[in-house]
């Protein structure tokens, strides 16, 4: 799988993502500076976590106007696969490649903790490594992860199977109003969503930080294994 | 503006009459305004260590694995595989009281620069925090700001915050302590130093622009507070972690080439201290042309530019033929890059602005003749050991009180605001082990990191407290299975001009030195913060508790084999070390009997070393499933923390005869560990062979902590009480 990772000024989880991709796919991804204007021949583009442009103005808002984004839009229009994690998810909503927005966490504080994600739709390239209803652990680390969208959009996401991951308890219980189950207060406990064609995915937590048995767990591995199966075939 | 430059003005800059006379002798004339500013910051306590130097010199700083000890920007130790760990801890106490968010944030930024300026990628942050009494009305504001500031900066730069400590005590009501530590990794043959070389080589300024913030910050940090502390807000710097992140990446990119001759961050006293230190260490002169300095605001004077403590700036000496290559890197990262001067053979620092020479100072005497004081000391008689007072409440009540008290309550409310996982190498996060474990990229090595100090022990007996701080840090690293390598110290004390404070300082250093020698645990970097006092409107000075915070680093060959607190079901619990029931200065005495008295626990450095080496060997041999040292709150709290970490309960045997039961469970005896092992018999026999005291405590089982007398508390109840304090204190629902 040929993957590329976009680096904006202030991106800070690009090395984590590169490590995960290298570990699982066996190939080091291409690092793409935000001033570049061509993606080249890629199977997957990843927008990683961090604080692009310091998160000044709004998280992801300035990165959405970086030179590389025009090329990423074209890549999306051609049906390319794009994964945005954390700040990358915020860039995708700010670019309107995914619907909705990410507001301040409901508790108004930065949150860094392990959370549990329930796989809602296991038929996509991003989720096929799991079964629907599976629950896995992932660290989250963000100040602005409270997903929101209009009632119509939320209804469409639900109806079209575009909710990829939902926050839950370790046993898979989903409860929108419970801070233990839904730490940042996201609408319908949404942690990750898909574009209409199912090829652009954004999520707030960091599966890339749990891929290495040597530092504790491999809960995030199915995301990357599934992508390899889907995109290399 | 006409200002008369005289002893009176010098005094308002923090220089004494004697120091001003010395300045006049060196200069042979009346100094300019800018020159007076330069002298005053270089000779401030913060930059010159004038009160502490004679004592600091007594600390051990060498070991075969030490590459650079004190004197560089940070300490450097060899961790194997051709790699070095670079680390230091530094205080930002005064600014954090005046403006908690920015004070703490820029504390993190400053210590990061000390580490990456040496060529290391920062891989972990820790912070040791001391706040006022939780009941004091101002404490919540400081906690909130400091925690947000540390998170706001550390999270954005993408360096995981993996550990630290927090205490509350009324002695910090008007003077909280924020001690930030950064650890970085570099190849040991690619360490960058600050000594300038090469007459004619360009001096290059990179990073943020210079503004009027933080002027005279170093001097502010060298004086006690009075009731007008708030008026000093303009001396606090403002941080921009986004720029810092760019600066880290740009510097590391440039450091991968061989363009740099010398590099130094602009920390306290900004351009002045970086230029003076680089040229001074290299034995050359330096000429700065301030017209070229990137400026944030118009009409800045030479004095303002030389003393500004604007953040996120570095000074470098480059090989002249590589300047354009370096410029391209900084332009890519959209950072300022300016050639602001050159190295000369004059032996002077010369500062030119608008064609006028604003300062021309000989460097050698500025450094060599900096004041140094052997200040008068009074040594207080340490209190006597007390015999255990009667237990007024019983074991269960004490347990539930202690695990919910401010000093023992879960710190997860704080940790959960710090990104602890960025980097993808955090193997053990806060609360999971006695020291945080961070794997070193591209290897299996794990760094074991901790910060420790028990200020109430230091207040009662500074020498014992200094030794205990070092011993506890060593023990915390040992309990994970790692080998302790070296420490950085952050010495926070009151006004050194008061003999009783100076006595505390000297005694604490003596204790630290003894422990460092006994444990082969040298001091490789550090920072001194004095004048941590607040003068009330009535004129009474309140000093903080003496707080020699120790930041420590160890290494384990395989991070995945490190040991944490969480004990598995169906294991034996073994105590290693001897319990004498030390209740003097214990949390039990303070929280249950409302007394802070007696001598702190005895420190036996031979036993400390012997017991710790035994525990580490047992871990290496694979006999240990969980391990936790005994510290604040004593043995019962150690066990309760192991129960809370795992959710697995235990059944404890009756304590031995001869000691009051509460002294056994709540005494804060040193050099002790609780281990969960498959086979207590084998471990006890190994301990006997090694002449290490050990006894079986019980067995892990079920989901409640149970005592032989029938007491039973569930893990979930313990957790609930343990987690309750912070959200309630901060006025937030759980």
Automatic annotation (TrEMBL), chain A:
Keywords: ATP-binding, Cytoplasm, Glutamine amidotransferase, Hydrolase, Ligase, Nucleotide-binding, Purine biosynthesis. It comes from Gluconobacter wancherniae NBRC 103581. Part of the phosphoribosylformylglycinamidine synthase complex involved in the purines biosynthetic pathway. Catalyzes the ATP-dependent conversion of formylglycinamide ribonucleotide (FGAR) and glutamine to yield formylglycinamidine ribonucleotide (FGAM) and glutamate. The FGAM synthase complex is composed of three subunits. PurQ produces an ammonia molecule by converting glutamine to glutamate. PurL transfers the ammonia molecule to FGAR to form FGAM in an ATP-dependent manner. Pathway: Purine metabolism; IMP biosynthesis via de novo pathway; 5-amino-1-(5-phospho-D-ribosyl)imidazole from N(2)-formyl-N(1)-(5-phospho-D-ribosyl)glycinamide: step 1/2. This is Phosphoribosylformylglycinamidine synthase subunit PurQ. It comes from the Bacteria. InterPro entries: Class_I_gatase-like (IPR029062), PRibForGlyAmidine_synth_PurQ (IPR010075). Part of the FGAM synthase complex composed of 1 PurL, 1 PurQ and 2 PurS subunits. Its EC number is 6.3.5.3, 3.5.1.2. It catalyses: N(2)-formyl-N(1)-(5-phospho-beta-D-ribosyl)glycinamide + L-glutamine + ATP + H2O = 2-formamido-N(1)-(5-O-phospho-beta-D-ribosyl)acetamidine + L-glutamate + ADP + phosphate + H(+); L-glutamine + H2O = L-glutamate + NH4(+).
Automatic annotation (TrEMBL), chain B:
It catalyses: N(2)-formyl-N(1)-(5-phospho-beta-D-ribosyl)glycinamide + L-glutamine + ATP + H2O = 2-formamido-N(1)-(5-O-phospho-beta-D-ribosyl)acetamidine + L-glutamate + ADP + phosphate + H(+). It is found in: Cytoplasm. Residues 199-353, 573-700 form the PurM-like C-terminal domain. Its EC number is 6.3.5.3. The keyword ATP-binding applies. ATP binds at residues 49, 88, 489, 526. The keyword Magnesium applies. Mg(2+) 1 binds at residues 90, 527. Its main location: cytoplasm. It holds the Pfam family AIRS. GO terms for molecular function: ATP binding; magnesium ion binding; phosphoribosylformylglycinamidine synthase activity. Substrate binds at residues 91-94, 113, 237, 309-311, 529. Residues 7-50 form the Phosphoribosylformylglycinamidine synthase linker domain. Mg(2+) 2 binds at residues 114, 265. Keywords: ATP-binding, Cytoplasm, Ligase, Magnesium, Metal-binding, Nucleotide-binding, Purine biosynthesis. Residues 71-186, 433-555 form the PurM-like N-terminal domain. This is Phosphoribosylformylglycinamidine synthase subunit PurL. The lineage of its organism: Bacteria, Pseudomonadati, Pseudomonadota, Alphaproteobacteria, Acetobacterales.
